[in-house]
């Protein structure tokens, strides 16, 4: 690892580190993380902290409830968020700032740019941004789902050089180290493929957090495709952070892609949610990033979902292969109308006047999906 090139990093801390016993926040594991952040800042490295833990921190305030529905969990988050921020604030002698986000904030391009501008402004004024998903208002439709993936989205928005994800193990193993004594740590990953995801397994089976190793690998894939070196390390031991400061890798280093995606293409691929689908003929073979004019209504078999002009859509073949995510120049209603009109001359003349269904500058081709 080449820490000398770091100018800006994102550190992600999970619920198990914030409130390990679900009896409110504890600084036991946070002291070494805070010290790491302080020392990075002293070396001129800007830091963004992505911190889970609001629900876990607020759980002890609702002890009489054995069954906690979604409304109660939102209340826990509302109560626990202030305690979590206060705990972090006590560990630093400089200003911090709270940023609460939902996926709706990130997938909307205008709001995404606003988030990026806010992060840059805070960092330029030496204020530590502390980011969390806004669990008090989020719904299934608006939810990022886990702060591992949120941290990758934030790292991309902040144009960070490195993303450090704190885990309860030393990094990615070839098998679950909690179940297999002979599990081996992977110290270096240069390509994230199906074999890497197989090692990561599924979501967390138990514990305080909502993610697992799989979500951490998903986050790494998002980050490295934007040119961000990503590390999964053991956040429960001070040694991890001392090694990082010494320029040594204490866990698993996912190497940044040598040719990262352009920022707007990365946002569309990894952050923006498709609001609908356009299903096209299986024999359509034109490369969408080079010949989008070739995608006409005559190629469309079906339009799924409801979307407006400017929304992100998924373009896929009838065999299920995902070809691209793109910004639609047509609403679903209008696209359905011209696709179902059955008059090829009408459709051709209409599209010649109004322009292509998707534009070359607003398309992200999906590979191997």
UniProtKB/TrEMBL annotation:
Gene3D superfamilies referenced in this protein's UniProt entry, alphabetically: Acetylglutamate kinase-like, PUA domain
GO CC field: cytosol
GO biological process terms, semicolon-separated: L-proline biosynthetic process
Top-level class of the enzyme under EC nomenclature: transferase
Pfam families linked: AA_kinase, PUA
Functional pathway: Amino-acid biosynthesis; L-proline biosynthesis; L-glutamate 5-semialdehyde from L-glutamate: step 1/2
Residues at which substrate binds: 52, 135, 147
Entry's EC annotation: 2.7.2.11
Keyword terms: Amino-acid biosynthesis, ATP-binding, Cytoplasm, Kinase, Nucleotide-binding, Proline biosynthesis, Transferase
One Gene Ontology term of the molecular function aspect: glutamate 5-kinase activity
Compartments, record wording: Cytoplasm
Binding site for ATP: 12, 167-168, 210-216
The organism's place on the tree of life at top rank: Bacteria
Domain Aspartate/glutamate/uridylate kinase: 7-234
Reaction equation(s) it catalyzes: L-glutamate + ATP = L-glutamyl 5-phosphate + ADP
Residues annotated as domain PUA: 277-332
NCBIfam families: proB
Entry-linked PANTHER family: GLUTAMATE 5-KINASE (PTHR43654), ISOPENTENYL PHOSPHATE KINASE (PTHR43654:SF1)
Family: Belongs to the glutamate 5-kinase family.
Described purpose of this protein according to its UniProt entry: Catalyzes the transfer of a phosphate group to glutamate to form L-glutamate 5-phosphate.
Protein name: Glutamate 5-kinase
Gene source species: Alteromonas lipolytica
């Amino acid at each position: 690892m080449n820490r000398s090139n770091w100018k800006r990093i994102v550190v992600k801390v999970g619920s198990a580190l914030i409130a390990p016993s679900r009896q409110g926040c504890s600084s036991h594991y946070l002291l070494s993380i805070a010290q790491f952040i302080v020392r990075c800042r002293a070396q001129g490295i800007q830091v963004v902290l992505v911190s889970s833990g609001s629900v876990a921190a607020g759980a002890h305030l609702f002890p009489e409830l054995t069954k906690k529905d979604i409304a109660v969990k939102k209340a826990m988050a509302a109560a626990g968020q202030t305690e979590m921020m206060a705990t972090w604030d006590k560990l630093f002698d400089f200003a911090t700032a709270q940023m609460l986000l939902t996926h709706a904030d990130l997938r909307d391009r205008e709001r995404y740019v606003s988030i990026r501008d806010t992060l840059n402004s805070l960092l330029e004024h030496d204020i530590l941004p502390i980011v969390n998903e806004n669990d008090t208002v989020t719904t299934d439709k608006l939810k990022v789902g886990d702060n591992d993936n949120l941290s990758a989205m934030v790292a991309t928005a902040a144009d960070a050089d490195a993303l450090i994800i704190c885990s309860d193990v030393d990094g990615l193993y070839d098998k679950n180290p909690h179940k297999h004594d002979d599990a081996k740590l992977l110290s270096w990953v240069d390509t994230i493929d199906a074999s890497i995801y197989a090692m990561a397994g599924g979501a967390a089976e138990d514990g305080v957090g909502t993610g697992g190793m799989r979500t951490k690998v998903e986050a790494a894939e998002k980050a490295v495709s934007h040119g961000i070196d990503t590390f999964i390390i053991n956040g429960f031991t001070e040694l991890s952070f001392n090694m990082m400061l010494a320029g040594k890798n204490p866990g698993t280093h996912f190497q940044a892609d040598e040719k990262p995606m352009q920022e707007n293409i990365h946002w569309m691929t990894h952050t923006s949610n498709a609001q609908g689908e356009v299903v096209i003929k299986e024999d359509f073979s034109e490369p969408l990033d080079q010949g989008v004019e070739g995608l006409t209504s005559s190629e469309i078999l079906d339009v799924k979902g409801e979307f407006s002009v400017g929304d992100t859509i998924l373009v896929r073949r009838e065999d299920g292969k995902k070809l691209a995510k793109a910004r639609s120049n047509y609403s679903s209603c209008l696209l359905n109308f011209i696709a179902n009109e059955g008059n090829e001359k009408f459709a051709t003349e209409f599209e010649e006047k109004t322009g292509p269904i998707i534009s070359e500058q607003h398309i992200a081709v999906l590979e191997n999906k």
